[in-house]
Amino acid sequence: TTSTITRHTVDQSRSVAYNRNIVVTMSGEDHPRAFVLDECQDLMFWTNWNEQAPSIMRASLNGANVLVII
């Protein structure tokens, strides 16, 4: 399986309507956790609990420019 970061949106005009878009797709060894959103800078940060290569990662809120910070 693959890990994903998804964006959930709710259409408040319909009681059961919501939308989900995959923003970032990672490998099956990746385990994204502990998300922080910086809406002013249009960035998201998360920890990746990959057993072989744990990291702190960053991407634009739209999922572009995925970067390993540490």
Overview of this structure, please?
The protein has strands spanning 4-10, 18-25, 32-38, 43-48, 55-60, 67-68. Helices cover 0% and strands 51% of the residues. The chain is built from no helices and 6 strands. The mean pLDDT is 82. It is mostly beta strands and 70 residues long. The strands form 2 sheets. It has a 4-stranded antiparallel β-sheet, with no helix packed on it. The protein has one domain. The chain starts with a strand and ends with a strand. The protein is globular.
Task: Put the structure in a nutshell.
The protein is mainly beta and 70 residues long. The chain contains no helices and 6 strands.
List keywords for this structure.
single chain, four-stranded antiparallel sheet, 6 strands, 51% strand
Spatial sequence of strands, sheet with the most strands: 3-4-5-6
Counting DSSP E segments of at least 2 residues, the number of strands comes to 6
The residue ranges in which pLDDT falls below 50 over 5 or more consecutive positions are none
- Which structural class fits the helix and strand makeup? mainly beta
Mean pLDDT value: 82
Strand content: over 45%
Tally of DSSP helical segments: 0
Helix-strand sequence: EEEEEE
Which word captures the global form? Answer: globular
Number of separate domains: 1
Largest sheet: 4 strands, antiparallel
Rg over C-alpha atoms, rounded to the nearest angstrom: 14 Å
Tell me the helix content. under 10%
Taking the alpha carbons of the first and last residues, their distance comes to 24 Å
Protein name: Low density lipoprotein receptor-related protein 1
InterPro entries: 6-blade_b-propeller_TolB-like (IPR011042), LDLR_classB_rpt (IPR000033)
Organism: Nothobranchius kadleci (African annual killifish)
Keywords: Lipoprotein, Receptor
